[in-house]
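Translate sequence into C-alpha cells.
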Amino acid sequence: MERSALVTGGASGLGRAAALALKARGYKVVVLDLKRGEEDLRYVEGDVVREGDVERAVAEAMAQGPLFAVVNAAGVGLVRKILGREGPHDLESFWRVLEVNLVGTFNVLRLAAWAMRENPPDGEGQRGVIVNTASVAAYEGQIGQAAYAASKGGVVALTLPAARELAEWGIRVVSIAPGLFDTPLLQGLPERAKASLAEQVPFPRRLGRPEEYAALVLHILENPMLNGEVVRLDGALRMAPR
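Result follows.
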C-alpha cells in the first residue's frame, strides 16, 4: 500500500532534506510551504498557522494515499534582546515566532492526527507518525533568543502529552531538537562565522547536514518504540549564553 507524507517547510533546509528522503523511501510526498521549491514534489502553497491552508495540504496528501508520516519543519528564527537599545522587545515579532513555531506545529499536528485516525492500522497497530522540530535552544536558549527558545520549548512540552493522547489511535509523536545545522538560516553568514560556530560542536566538529536530520526522521518512522520523546541531534553541543 502506498503511503503519503506531509512535510511543512519542505521547500528548503531541513524540511527539503526530509521530503526528498521520504520520496526516495517510496512515500507520496506533499510539501506545505509559503513558496514552491525546485524539486519535483507536490506543493501546496500556504501558511502553517492558517487552518484552511493546512486542511488543503492534508487533503492533498490523503488523495495520494493514507497519510502516515508528518514532518513539521516550518519555522522562523529571531535574534532580539528583551531590553534592546531602542527599547523593550516588541510584542508583534514575539507573537509571530510563537505563532509559526508553536501554534503552527500544533495546527498541523491536530489536523493531521484527525485524518490519521481513519487509517487502517499496520502490524504494530500504528496509524501514523508525527515528527516535530524543536531546537537545542529550547534547553540552552542564548541571549537574544527569548522568542525562539520559548517557541521551541513549547514544542518540547507538547511532545509527551500529544503522544500520550494519540496513543489511543496508534499515532506516535516524536520531536527532533537539532543543534547547529547548515541551513538557509546560517547560509547568509560569512564562512569565517560559520567555521566559528562549527568549532563549538564537540564531535563531529562541523555543522550538521540536513541529510542527517532526514536520516533521523526515517529512523523515527521505522522504529515503533520511539514515542513521546525529544531527540537531540547536536554532536554533544551545549550552547553558551551568547
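Note: The helical segments are 13-24, 51-64, 91-116, 137-140, 146-166, 184-187, 191-198, 210-222.
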